[in-house]
Predict the structure.
Amino acid sequence: MFSTYEEALEWIHSRLRLGMKPGLQRMEWMMEKLGHPERRIKSVHIGGTNGKGSTVTFLRSILQVAGYSVGTFTSPYFEKFNERISLNGIPIKDEDLVRVANDIYPLAIELEQTELGGPTEFEIITAMAFQYFGHVQPVDLVLFEVGLGGRYDSTNIIYPVLSIITSIGLDHTAILGNTYEEIAFEKAGIIKPGISVITGVKQEEALAVIQDKASSLKAPVYHLENEFKISDHKPLAQGESFSLETVFQSFPGLETGMSGKHQAENASLAVMAAELLNRYYSFLIEENHIRAGLKMAFWPGRFEILSENPLVVIDGAHNEEGIAALTAELNSRFGDKSKNIVFAALADKKLDKMISKLDSAADRITFTEFEFPRAASAEELYELSTNSRKHLHKDWKVLMETVLFDSGKDSVLIITGSLYFLSEVKPFLVKLLEERK
């Protein structure tokens, strides 16, 4: 058992050695032992390739403005591990994390002696979240973000009031499949009988899979472009403006505090969810709550402007679709500026296609690396680039000190790639910028 936060965290991270073990049996076994805390929780389940975290943030913000207490379970964390289990946007306290880790620890030891085998790191964290919101800190609603896929994800033992599938992209193909249909099948695994599903999926073949699964389970589908539509989209200096027409009502001139056309789409999913919660689940959410919630929502590392002078943007574009959204936004917002891109990524991504897109957008691109078990080396990334002004720098801290102060008024510095990389870079950059003032 653990007496300190550091001991608990060390044990949780030690479970990484078990890798990923798809399946729900270990989760069901632990929940039975804990008295099924997951059944005490009213929840919304959010899956998809990109946009999960932002959609969670928009919906949480709307609900908070409406006066509700909201739990969130998200991954990965950005600055501190505790962010993964949060209450009203505030990470779980160290002492509460130790408490729920101590609840799970003896179960993990016992489970290791069974034919099911020991739980993985993600299963343990998920179980901790269920225990926290089910027994320690009850809330009005918990937003559970899927870790990977959906069908066999550890979170998929819940029976939510709503399901959201944000998007489908060719990510984690070694696990989820190589086609949009195969990946959609895994994501559609979170759809439950009779429970409405909201989706922003664009590919016809992927949408067909989701609609077929929903139809078989008599689950109503609310699809962006059909049951709700965006119009009058305009980028703002910080954020987006758009109008939204749902099957229930119109919302002219909505504004978000997060930038990118994709964020308008993520926000629309959250608005549709708020509408359904209001109409069918007795959540008193009014239009003013929606408007204020969207404007207040903030999710770090998503086209986040760290500084105006020098102009610095960080964006966790960690797959092909994310890179496409980033480059489109760069061309839209900073078409007249020289683009200096710094990139680091995990080795299990489709790096050739990601780098090809970055090459076409960058006036200068530098590849670097960071310490993480699955991180790609700077050399690997560099070799995949065809940009005539490509560079390699293995020490990202020295690189940041160089590129940050080389940025001129007609250029923008973009640091992108793995969210694990950005979580290390952001505090370092913030400190450098403070020291420069």
